[in-house]
Structure formats: C-alpha cells, structure tokens
Design brief:
Belongs to the UPF0126 family. This protein has 231 residues and is mostly helical. It contains 9 helices and no strands.
C-alpha cells in the first residue's frame, strides 16, 4: 500500500472521540431501575462510543489503531465520559441537543473513516463501507455492552443510511478533485442533516414483510367439490 497522502489531524480525531464519549455517557446515564449503571459502567460506555469507531476503522484497514498510539485518545474519551456523567441531569432535559450531538458524531467518524480508507488506496465502495462501519461502530459496541438490540438492525431513524449518504458524497467529491478537508466537511454536514431530518420527520426504511407465495394446489384442494346425486 502507498503511504497516505491525507492524515486526520489529531485535534479533529480527538474532537470525534470527545463528542462520542460525551454522547455515550449521556446515553448510559439515562438508565433507571435495575438497568442503572455505576460510574465505572457509564465511563466504559462513554469510552467505547468515543473510541469504538476509530478502532473498527483501523482494524478494517489492517493498521495499528491510532487510539493506541497516543495517550490523548483514552484521556479524552475518559474525560468526556466523566463530563457527560456530571452534566447528565442538565442534558436529559435537552433531548434535542443529544440527538444533534449523536448526528455530528456519526458524521465525524464516517468522514474520517472514508477519508483514511481512500488515502490508503482502497477503492471507492470499500472506502464507503469502512466509513459507515466507523460511523456506526461505537453505537453497535454500546448496544452490545448494555444488552440492547443493535439499533442499526431495527426500524429506526436512518443511522447507517445517513452515514452512508455522507460517505458517498465525500467520496464523490474527492474523486472529482475536491480537497480532502472540504470533502470531509461536506460529508459531515450531509450525514448530520440527513440524520436530523430523519429524527424530526420520523423517517425510516420500510419494515421487512414476510413474502407469501400462493400455493394454488393446496388452496384448491380445500375447496369442496359438489357431486350430483346418483340417479
């Protein structure tokens, strides 16, 4: 593989990690009753949401994860998770802020994943796939850890579709010669807008329906045949 021509700035990667850690901690702090989590549990969820996307991205690219090459990733994710716990009471009354934060997070990880995949020479379709996996990876790990149905596999508000739309737009722009930075900004914006519109207007993909095939032979065999009486 050729050396990458685009490197994600450390501050930008840490921004995604921090926002993901904050969003994950806010999510985990919302559990009540027997499902409530202690400080360590909330912190772990925040850390996994913050770092999960980047870990999955680098593993798919067969790279040593960036988050394991610097102290700042884990420190940022932990600090953001702790901040999320402290502000949980405030943010629980600001549901719109949590939704907007979630949309930005998947946009960031999707854009960073696709950009890095393209920089390492992957074709456009696998690059988009890597970006989508990076975008939804933290949420998948979160749901698995807390024992919830994985959100992207159920009827919902277009998580993966929003991420895929942003990744596709980013890829098209880069292939067309637009700079990686501008392409990433546009891709993040597209993902964020699609996700927010899906939540506001309650949009989702059509629910699967079991397809039935008419079994004519069976159906007709159940029809009574009236025979004329014997003369």
């Amino acid at each position: 593989m050729n050396e990458p021509t685009f490197v994600i700035p450390l501050w930008a990667d840490l921004l995604g990690v921090g926002l993901g850690g904050l969003q994950g901690a806010l999510f985990a702090s919302g559990f009540r009753g027997q499902r409530r989590l202690d400080f360590l549990g909330v912190a772990i969820i925040g850390i996994m949401v913050g770092m999960g996307g980047g870990l999955i991205r680098d593993l798919l690219l067969n790279l040593l994860p960036s988050s394991l090459q610097s102290n700042w990733y884990l420190l940022t994710a932990t600090g953001a998770a702790l901040l999320g716990m402290l502000l949980a009471g405030v943010f629980q009354r600001l549901n719109a802020a949590i939704v907007a934060l979630d949309a930005v997070v998947i946009g960031l990880f999707g854009a960073f994943g696709t950009s890095k995949a393209l920089a390492f020479g992957l074709p456009v379709v696998p690059a988009v796939f890597v970006g989508v996996c990076a975008a939804v990876g933290g949420g998948v790990l979160r749901d698995v850890l807390v024992g919830l149905p994985v959100a992207i596999m159920h009827v919902g508000s277009l998580y993966a579709v929003a991420a895929g739309g942003g990744c596709v737009v980013l890829t098209v722009l880069q292939v067309s010669g637009v700079s990686p930075t501008i392409s990433a900004i546009v891709g993040i914006a597209v993902t964020t807008v699609v996700r927010l519109l899906a939540v506001i207007f309650d949009l989702s993909l059509p629910e699967q329906r079991m397809l039935y095939r008419r079994k004519v032979a069976v159906e007709t065999s159940a029809i009574p045949i009236v025979k004329p009486p014997d003369e």
